[in-house]
Write a structure and sequence with these properties.
homodimer; alpha/beta; Arc Repressor Mutant, subunit A; 3-stranded antiparallel β-sheet; 11 strands; globular; DNA-binding (chains A, B); transcription regulation (chains A, B); PuR_N (chains A, B); transcription (chains A, B); Pur operon repressor (chains A, B)
């Protein structure tokens, strides 16, 4: 790269850091890349840090010393996130989203890139401190959420299939009972999709009793992998605590009331926004 | 937003533009946001433009006049893209990717956020000049590619299902013949997923004869929607031109040779990299 003026270097460094979250970049690498003194690079990083932290883009963690460097951790600000989840809850409450069986139509929302980026950043913020090797989800609607989160955590996504496809090679399958309709179903994952001992974050779009997520937890055991966290976009509040198979999870929104007759839906911010978590 | 110094403003403007591709932002909006004169904003944009265009991040299109503003169009540089697709082709050529039936295992690659961003940017570059309202793909492996592209084109993704799920509401289903195994299959899309007259970019992971993509084209006709383009990650070169159902598409890689006995695979850059397209 040709030598840049400070103003151009700030632009380049900003995009360079934004596209490499959770990655340690040494001051030496930056100094070489921009043919600049480490002291100048450090000054640039201080400016970027102040903007990123002030505007709710993320944190810049700097490591001092010979092996020193900088790591960009995408983090939203809770007040901004709460404001945005409020808007999402209002969208989820639209009466025409009610489908047969008390399900909510939300496929349209899960197709919008701006919303997915916001939600992905909320999950990445919730799990920023965990040690995570991969994100797991089950097809189909969890996939966009898992990938949106993976962009900010910079780890790969593995997708559990509801049937066994020929293009996956040898697979591990398990049966699970979906909590909402009590039917036995099958899910499978390619043997080579996950290394043993991986620390895995489970992401899904909707959770009632948690049967599907419990299935993924069981599948992880088959791979000798570890659950590093569970994040759901919308949880149903219509489940008793006894019925719930899973208690340690983060939800971004909570469906608290569905009245099929009046088509009235109430959606509130999830446990991510509870006081004790801030 | 509090008033920032020029250096901090450049950092903030860079991230602001990067997160809003294909969106017209007026100079007035920037001037208000940063409490700065339009002349200063214009100088900042000139610096950002030079870095973005020099480094292969994208183009900044400026519109002059009272309604003037700026639009960030993510675009990769062809030489950088060719270099990266070369690396991806080498990964696809690994002998242990060969599966029964001459299929290639590539689910692992389609889970890597950095690779998906590169490939998404290539598709966004290929189709930057088209007028696109939505991106369509069919579950499951096309989904990450469609979403990666949608981030750069800033349009929603609609996902065609291979079966009819209860949570989608009323759906339109069609039968199609998969070119590779000649079986009749069904695909469906929720009635409310796509507006009539939408201009739709179709994205998929793999194309042999093109039966699946032709199915999506037929489905679009049912919605009175228009095909704005077709992009495939890997096309099979083992198909005669007569056999191919589809001729107007962009491929990023081309599987030119599969020798099941010696397990030798050859993958080359796709038609996106052909001279006449540059």
């Amino acid at each position: 790269m040709k030598k840049l003026k400070r103003s151009a270097r700030l632009v380049e460094m900003t995009q360079y850091l934004l596209s490499r979250p959770h990655t340690l970049i040494s001051l030496t690498a930056f100094a070489d890349r921009y043919q600049s003194a480490k002291s100048s690079i450090s000054e640039d990083l201080a400016i970027i840090k102040e903007v990123f932290e002030g505007e709710g883009i993320g944190e810049l963690h700097t490591l001092a010393g010979a092996a020193g460097g900088v790591r960009f951790i995408p983090m939203c600000r809770k007040d901004q996130a709460l404001d945005r989840i409020g808007g999402i809850c209002r969208q989820l409450e639209q009466p025409d989203r009610l489908l047969a069986g008390g399900y909510l139509y939300m496929t349209d929302l899960l197709g919008q890139p701006a919303l997915l980026q916001e939600v992905g950043l909320m999950f990445a913020t919730a799990f920023a401190g965990r040690d995570i090797d991969a994100i797991m989800t089950v097809e189909t609607k969890g996939i966009p959420l898992a990938h949106a989160t993976s962009l900010y955590l910079n780890v790969p996504v593995v997708i559990v299939r509801r049937d066994h496809k020929v293009t996956e090679g040898s697979v591990v399958s398990i049966n699970y009972v979906s909590g909402s309709n009590k039917r036995i179903q099958t899910m499978s994952l390619a043997r080579r999709a996950l290394r043993e001992q991986s620390r895995v974050l489970i992401i899904d779009d909707f959770m009632k009793a948690g049967g599907t997520i419990q299935g993924m937890v069981d599948l992880l055991h088959e791979f000798r992998a570890v659950v590093a966290g569970v994040g759901v976009f919308v949880e149903s509040g219509e489940v008793d605590n006894e019925e719930r198979l899973l208690h340690d999870y983060i939800s971004l929104a909570r469906l608290t009331e569905v009245d099929l007759k009046s088509r009235h839906i109430t959606v509130q911010p999830g446990n991510f926004f509870k006081e004790e978590r801030t």
